[in-house]
Specification:
By secondary structure, the protein is an alpha/beta fold. Among the domains are: about 170 residues, TIM Barrel, CATH 3.20.20.300; about 210 residues, Rossmann fold, CATH 3.40.50.1700; about 110 residues, Sandwich (Immunoglobulin-like). The chain contains 25 helices and 26 strands. The strands form seven sheets. It has a six-stranded mixed β-sheet. The protein is globular and about 75 Å long. The N and C termini lie far apart (about 65 Å). Bound molecules: 1-deoxynojirimycin.
Length: about 750
Amino acid sequence: MIHKNIIYAYSVLLLLVLSCSTPKSSVNVSNTDPTSKRVDSILSLMTLEEKVGQLNQYNGFWEITGPVPKEGQAAKKYDDLKKGLVGSMLNVKGVSDVKALQKIAVEQTRLGIPLLFGFDVVHGYKTISPIPLAEAASWDLKAIQKSAEIAAEEAAAVGINWTFAPMVDISRDARWGRVMEGAGEDPYLGALIAKARVQGFQGNLSNKNIIACAKHFAGYGFAESGRDYNTVVVSDDVLHNVILPPFKASVDAGVKTFMNSFNDLNGIPATGSSFLQRDILKKSWNFKGFVVSDWGSINEMIAHGYAQDSKQAAEIAINAGSDMDMESYAYIDHLKSLVVSGVVDVSVIDDAVRRVLRVKFELGLFENPYKYCNEAIEKETVGKTEFHEGVLDMAKKSIVLLKNDKQLLPLKKSGQKIALIGALAADKTSPLGSWRIGADDNTAISVVEGMNKYPNNEVTYSKGADVAIGRTQFMWETKINTTDTSGFAEAIATAKKADVVVMVLGEHGLQSGEGRSRAELGLPGVQQELLEAVYKVNPNIVLILTNGRPLAIPWAAEHIPAILETWHLGTQSGHAIAQVLYGDYNPSGKLPMTFPRNVGQLPLYYNYKNTGRPSANEPESVFWSHYIDEKNTPLFAFGHGLSYSKFEYSELKVSKASFSKGETIQVQVELKNNSTVEGKEVVQLYIRDVVGSFTRPVKELKGFEMVELKPFESKVITFTIDQEMLAFYTANKTWEAEPGTFKVFVGGSSDQLLETEIVLK
Ligand code: NOJ
């Protein structure tokens, strides 16, 4: 039911549109479309305080449906809600809680403007998908979109109407714990995945969809030394050619909101950056949605040394285009007086409020504020079988076969003695990964459970070593691994008797994510010792890696015959892993991020610059770009991933050697499945711009295609190269293709490519 005040607002709409001078907008949000008119009609009814209220977001509080607190922060929040001084809440979930708060906003405030309910639905709400980095390894945009659709539908059913996802930060440093939350290191793949995720979450904004939020704008993934929240210094070239493309793709896909970031970028905190939020996002990209700050990031400008106090921080942030304040209390405390004293122009506030109201209108909340508040839907939707099938499918597609010497995989389905070792093999919480705050502990299928579905082998489980993680407080508090090796003897004894050893090692799901940067990228705790001890008695090991970031595991890569990268695969993890282990699913994942040999190589990425000294000019020379104690090459390259099929590339051809503006060139390659196993391969196209006004990377991903081939089948794959593909942000500050020679590479991994050349005239 629409509240009486809103009805009133509509009834005066026409009159207002005709009689009020249109409020000044400092930005280019069109105010002639029907939504703008509705927005303006509401805006004209609002007091300054109510306007500020729309820009204020509060974190949820406990016992929302219980007695109203009399004092403290929760009491103030209730009070502010009733006065119409809150535009959005975060971390409120469940129809009954959402409804209770929405009721206050709609029925008890003067204007009855509905609230937005934000939540970090990052890879599922309760039915959990693989972590986003894992999903990116599928290179399967349809599957990724489907995964976001499932997450949206389940979250929508519990009252949430806004997810703080996708995180579209490109990162080249595996030490940064939040790489688990993104799509990896490549801007092209990252942009396509950003689009798929935005479309998956938002769809057509039905009651099964929720609005998305592209974050963190911008540069957050380039935190110096991979240490979370650290300062970011990047060139114009890297900003425009690497960091911004997935954000731009999100805008083009119609994302409704952006979140700014904690970091400073080239000396200016992103939250206070007019250059990012106004010049690029709102002016150049014509973004019509709104920007929410990150948690407390407005006030963090004080610690950054960019604002003297919260009042100045509020002034800087609002003027810079940061529209909504998440938990800094800076806007609610200071914006009104900043406007009254003339420090902030009211047109700036109006623009921000318009943006927030527009999104609420587009989401349909004015028509039905309880659009997401249906108990029956909640009951029948959460944990639906269909969701479990969906996340299982996504999980299988996310697995990457890193190594398979001696064809150890797939495992035989019967007659085998298998030693299954590692605490993570039995863990039912870790596979949920980081950022799954709606899910319950112990709800993932473990590897032990998954393997039990194949009863004709004798599987003996032994923990070996603990990966002790105590979840003592919300999701944040983690105890790092013990040094206890007392379980080694039992694991070694089981391994000795086994035909094959399956070891599940890596990081616990809470060892990556926000605030979980690592300085070491080996197997945490005593797991490396355990691996080596088991190897001594039985080298027939399949290593199942479970981790939220690339790891540096050179010993394992050299000695262990089979390695499966399984990340944190979500609720259906164990089933997905078992199906791949036994060959019921043929793995097709490809790494979206480089695995280093050594932490000292970081940042390490495939699209690096050649430098002036890419190789030694004499055999013994030290004066070239290298380490004296480590190779330059990665352990596993971007794009790498094997299959139980054997794919062979040949016959790379171009339709012509050169082309001019407006023309295209066809690139063809022949792909053969030279095996008895049907499989899928991601055929990758890379291009190198040999000479540019900015130095150009040695190669850049520019296209890919997922190809399915039957045993011994061949196919010719064609890519079309146009000028757009060759364009980049040039030293002239334009997006254009510069004429000259381009190398063209096609293959199954960024380090295994056939090569040819074309010329743009
Ligand atoms: C801080 C994180 O940086 C951001 O990604 C998240 O959405 C907010 N907290 C809200 O939980």
